[in-house]
C-alpha cells in the first residue's frame, strides 16, 4: 500500500485530483492534502509519503523549493508537478530536481494515472534495491564477524587433507569468498603448550587458550587479516603466516617474534611452550609442512620455551643406557624415598643435556620405574590402583613420557603416593615397639641409627623421619634420654663408681658422660647421687 500527498493552494484543484482517479485501484490507501509548503513539510515529518503531486506556483514558497527539500530528506518519494504555465524553464528545473513528470493544468486524469503508475513502479524498484543493499550489508557484516571461524575451518581442512588439491582449494576459496589466493605463500609455525604451571579446570583452560591465541595474533601477526591461528587440539595451535616477500632477515625476525611471545606466555599465562617454525610453501603444501612440524615436536623430549626451525636438523643421539632399578627396589623396601628421588632427579636431569634424545629412552625408563613400583606393591600385597591412583591413569602415563620434565613430575608423584600409602597401611606401632625395645636392650652400647635401621629393615633416613613423626623426638635425643635415665637409676640404687656406670650406659669417655649428664640433669653424677641419697636418708 502507498500514501499520496496533494499540495496545491487552490482547494478546487485539490478536490479535482482527489476525485479524478480511482486511487484505491492503484493501491493508494491514504491521501493527504496540504495547501502550502509548510503544511506539506509537517505531513512529511509525520507520514511516509510515497508520491507527491504538487503545484509549482504557490504563495510564500514554490513547489520547486519544496521538491528540493524533499530530495534531501525523503529520497524514495516520487514527485509529479502540476502548473498552469508551459514554461520550459520550470520544466527543466523540475526535471533536474528529480521530478517524475511535469503536467499542465487542467490535467488529463488518464495521463495522471499512467504517470502515478510509473511512479509506483519506480518506488518498488528503489525499495527492492534498498532491501538488497541492506541484505548485502547484513551478510557482509555477518561474513566479517565470522571470517575468523571460516578461515580457521578452511585451514583445518587443509591441514587434515580434507581439502588438498589446488583445484579443490581454489573452489573452496571462491565459494566461501575467503580473502586469500591459492598462489600466496605461507609459513606455518606450530605452537605447542607443553605444560601449565597449575592444574586448570575446563573453563579456565579455555580462557587461557583464548588468551594465548589473542597474544599470538598481536605479537606474531600484528593484525594481518590474511594470517590465521588454527586450533588443532587443546595444546597444539598453528600460526599460518603469509609471506609476501623474501627478506634476508626473515627467519631472524620470526625467531625474535616467537621468543618474545614465549617469554610473555611464561610471564603472564604461567605456561611452558615451544614454537616450531616450518618451511614456507603454497596452500596445498601446508599439510606436509604441518606433519613435519608434528614429527619435530614429538622428537623434542627435553627442551621447553624454545624456538625450533625445521631447517635445523636435530641429529638423533645414540642409545643411552637406562638404569637398572634392582638397587632402587631394595632402597624402597627400606623406605629410602629421598635417596631414590635424588637418584631419579640426577639421572633425568642429565637427559636434559642430551641433544636429539630418543623417545625410547624415556619410555624404557618409565617402564622400568613403573615395574619397580609394581614389584614393591606386590611385595607388600597391596593393590596398584589403591596406591598409585591417578598416576596410572592412561592420560597421566601418556603425558609422562612426552618430555623429561613431565617424567620428573610423574616420578615424584608416583613415589609420593607410594610412601603416603606406606604411612597409612603399615603397622607402625609394632615396628616402633621393636625400635624402643632394641634401644633399651642396647643401652650399654654406642647405638647408631644404622644399627637400629638394620634391625627393622628400614633405611636410616626413613627411620629418622618416621621416629620423629611418631615420638616428637629425634633418635639421638631419645637414646640420650634413655641412657641418662638408666644412669640415674644406677647412681641411686648401686654403689658402682661413676666411671663404671658410664661404661654401663655405653660411654667409654668419662668426661663426655659427665658433660652429657650435667646438660640433661643440671648437676654432675656425684652431685645427683648425693642429693638423691640425702633425700632417702631424710
Automatic annotation (TrEMBL):
<feature type="modified residue" description="4-aspartylphosphate">
    <location>
        <position position="55"/>
    </location>
</feature>
<dbReference type="InterPro" id="IPR009057">
    <property type="entry name" value="Homeodomain-like_sf"/>
</dbReference>
<feature type="domain" description="HTH araC/xylS-type">
    <location>
        <begin position="433"/>
        <end position="531"/>
    </location>
</feature>
<keyword id="KW-0805">Transcription regulation</keyword>
<keyword id="KW-0597">Phosphoprotein</keyword>
<feature type="domain" description="Response regulatory">
    <location>
        <begin position="3"/>
        <end position="120"/>
    </location>
</feature>
<protein>
    <submittedName>
        <fullName>Response regulator</fullName>
    </submittedName>
</protein>
<dbReference type="Pfam" id="PF00072">
    <property type="entry name" value="Response_reg"/>
</dbReference>
<dbReference type="InterPro" id="IPR011006">
    <property type="entry name" value="CheY-like_superfamily"/>
</dbReference>
<keyword id="KW-0238">DNA-binding</keyword>
<dbReference type="Pfam" id="PF12833">
    <property type="entry name" value="HTH_18"/>
</dbReference>
<keyword id="KW-0804">Transcription</keyword>
<dbReference type="InterPro" id="IPR020449">
    <property type="entry name" value="Tscrpt_reg_AraC-type_HTH"/>
</dbReference>
<dbReference type="InterPro" id="IPR018060">
    <property type="entry name" value="HTH_AraC"/>
</dbReference>
<dbReference type="InterPro" id="IPR001789">
    <property type="entry name" value="Sig_transdc_resp-reg_receiver"/>
</dbReference>
<dbReference type="InterPro" id="IPR018062">
    <property type="entry name" value="HTH_AraC-typ_CS"/>
</dbReference>
